[in-house]
From TrEMBL:
This is MBL fold metallo-hydrolase. It comes from the Bacteria. Pfam families: Lactamase_B. Residues 27-226 form the Metallo-beta-lactamase domain. InterPro entries: Metallo-B-lactamas (IPR001279), NDM-1-like (IPR050855), RibonucZ/Hydroxyglut_hydro (IPR036866), ST1585_MBL-fold (IPR037482). It comes from Actinomadura alba. PANTHER family: METALLO BETA-LACTAMASE SUPERFAMILY LIPOPROTEIN, METALLO-BETA-LACTAMASE DOMAIN-CONTAINING.
Amino acid sequence: MSPRPKVTPLGDDVYEIDTRMAGHTGITAGYLILGDRPCLVEPGTAGSAPVVREALTSLGVGPSDLSTVVVTHIHLDHAGGVGDMAEAYPAAEIVVHEKGARHLAAPERLMRSARMVYGDLLDELFGELKPTDAARIRAVEDTGVIDLGGGRRLESHYSPGHAKHHVGLLDSLTGDLYVGDAAGIYIPETADVRPATPPPDFDMDTALASLEKFKALGPKRLLFAHYGPVAAVTETLDRSAEELRLWVETVRKAHDESLDIDHAVAMVRDRTDGRYKAYGPDADPALTEKYELLNSTAGNVAGIMHSFGKLA
């Protein structure tokens, strides 16, 4: 028997749902905003869909009740379950940035690319993204509005750098900002912030501009998909920018010296040794393994290296 889903109330009808990606706890969060028009932010992977459905049921949201499913971007740890959720909640509108909309309607190309990267591990980590009827998908551009009912809304703000189809989402009532991966990975056990710079879309200057946009929005709290709420808004966004610059500077040095990716990974590990409590000789090995699965050093370095090629 699978464990009951972990649902954490965050106030003002916001609930954090542990989507249990690949069976891990505390690695990927979805968020339900209850009210007149219930909205699910970040459904997680296809493999997480049963967990998320059970969580919604426990919160009184039935198949005809969910109004909206919105994703910050279409990477499979965030949006892999969209097709399953659309099928289970036939009244829900699916909201995504315009650059990602076609991949939710016809995910074959996205799935082929993901399988090239992950191989057989794809099924264990993410499962299969099912297509969603294009008529149910609403594409937003630089900004957009999701009606939550009662005058409350989610405002989407285009925030590329991590991915070209990324948006942040600001709750008009609470000031919560759903940051997706644009501010990196937050590790709640240790309060570490690590970059998220996978290929093929990562671009440092664009990512830094998105962080500045987030600061200018004046959010009261950051809600990370990985993982959870953070009240220290300015400090966390500043730390995210600092870590990005450090990683890119280190990988650029390896690139300029014509070193291969293995050397670049080693240089990053040497340079960041001691910066993250979740890593290093004194860290909990299980915690390190969990976050390497989600946000591997090699994957981040590959994304940074790829960004240099785009600039050439």
